[in-house]
Sequence to fold (419 residues):
Amino acid sequence: MNGKLIISISMALLFARLKQTMVAAFGVTFSITMFITLLSFMAGLNKMLDNLILNRTPHIRLYNEILPTKIQPINRALEFANDYNFIQHIKPKNDLLDIRNSEAIINSLKKDKYAMGVAPKLVTPIFYNVGVINLTGVLNGIDVDAENKLFTFQDYVVEGKTTSLKNTPYSIIIGIGAAKKMLVQIGDNIQITTVTGQIFPLKVVGFFQSGIEELDKVQSYTTLATCQKIMGKPNSYITDIQIKLKDITLAPSTAKKYKHLYATEAIDIQTANSQFETGSSVRTLISYAVGITLLIVAGFGIYNILNMMIYEKMDSIAILKATGFSGKDVNRIFIFIALTIGIVGGVLGLIFGFGLSAVIAQIPFSTASLPTVKTYPISYNPIFYIIGAIFSLITTYFAGYFPSKKASKIDPVDIIRGK
Fold:
């Protein structure tokens, strides 16, 4: 049968039941709108939470850890070589935490094709001196330029600038939690005590806020050179080498390679944050499940409306078949009606979903624990819109297929005789 004629009849049936058609289209529009908005918001939230970890966490961290000696002297003795030796209260090795040949390792990593950047770091426990009270803390000696480039350090400095660390001798950027405890302001001088009992005065040039309150109560930052002088160590003394890779998915395998190559401990970001990644996956799965459920519910609405349309249009269907329309033609008419509802509702849903997401993205979101977040997070990933469009077509197609199959089997003689 002529395609234009089928389209014309389908449009006539659509407009004959305009109110029901609009209700069905609205169901699809609402489902797609909420599907897009929900996924965009949840993906934006996951991205924001991931960035809190990724921005401040190296893909691979090289370090030394004080561990008991695996091979004890008795195991080296030939007379006990074939015996089982049970040793209790093994003491840790008398090793330092610094990474040996750190300069050579850093130069090697900078030439590695997988590495995007390298940032050396020196971490040491300290005490903040507040009158007669000592508060525990952790001092991080950093390469300021490398930290800004690889870990967006400046974004987490809520007051002051990271460049002040380089320009001001013996300066410190202190965690906002520790600053509130000590009631210090930018420009004040504080005293710290090292674990060896040495006391050093440092000038506060900024406040740092990671969004994790317990860290902000202890963490502070100074330059690598200043930290080495405070500890009385040479310029080669480094406890951590932080590495950012070009491809984060290679972190587990690359960490194993670096551990063997440089004879240090190595931990990758996936291992260090496995629980966090699980939470992100579960939230994404829930978002897709809810969004698809909305589309299926809309599909049932279209199915019910088309079913009612068939019962109400029995006479019209009988006349069509009596005048030469085949069962396949009737089938095409009702599938066309369903797809038209799906396309119109889907396009409107994509537009409204984008608009609602844009509105949410402008809503202020201010919290002391997340200083870098100013508005609600939204992701405009095109894949969400593609999935929404495809799924709306699939849902409406099947919502129209089963009623159309029923309509194509109607016997016009039975209908006309019944009348």
Remarks:
- The mean pLDDT is 81.
- The two ends are 27 Å apart (CA to CA).
